[in-house]
Amino acid sequence: MLESLVLFAALVLMAVVSGKTNATTLLGAQLFFWARLAYAFVYLAGIPWLRTAVWLVSVIGLLLIFVQLL
Predict the structure, then answer these.
(1) How much is the pTM?
(2) What are the Cα distances from residue 56, in Å, to 7, 21, 49?
(3) What's the confidence (pLDDT) of residue 3?
(4) CB under 8 Å to 20, separation ≥6 — which residues?
(5) How far is 20 from 31, CA to CA, in rounded Å?
(6) What three-state secondary structure class fits 47?
(7) CA 25 from chain center: how many Å?
(8) Domain interval for residue 31
């Protein structure tokens, strides 16, 4: 989880510094946060297929932020 947190922090910092924050970056940040929180619970529950789906949602959140930086 630490690797993706560093990437998330870097993307959000770049979005804020460049002034490209908007509703899409907010949605991306919210998706990432809640998906990573859900991932921890799904991981503890031991459901591998659901864990993959939740991880994918967090990656989509990161991609939403990244696209706004282009």
Answers:
(1) 0.87
(2) 15, 22, 11
(3) 80
(4) 68, 69
(5) 18
(6) coil
(7) 10
(8) 2-69
The two tokens of residue 67 are: 């696209």
Count of domains observed in the chain:
1
Which residue, among 47, 44, 14, has the nearest Cα to 28 in the 3D structure? Answer: 14
Distance CA 65, CA 70 (A): 10
| Residue 8 near residue 62, CB atoms below 8 Å | yes
pLDDT by position in tens, the chain (length 70): 678 889 999 999 999 999 999 999 999 999 999 999 999 999 999 888 999 999 999 999 999 999 999 9
Q: What is the pLDDT of residue 69?
A: 92
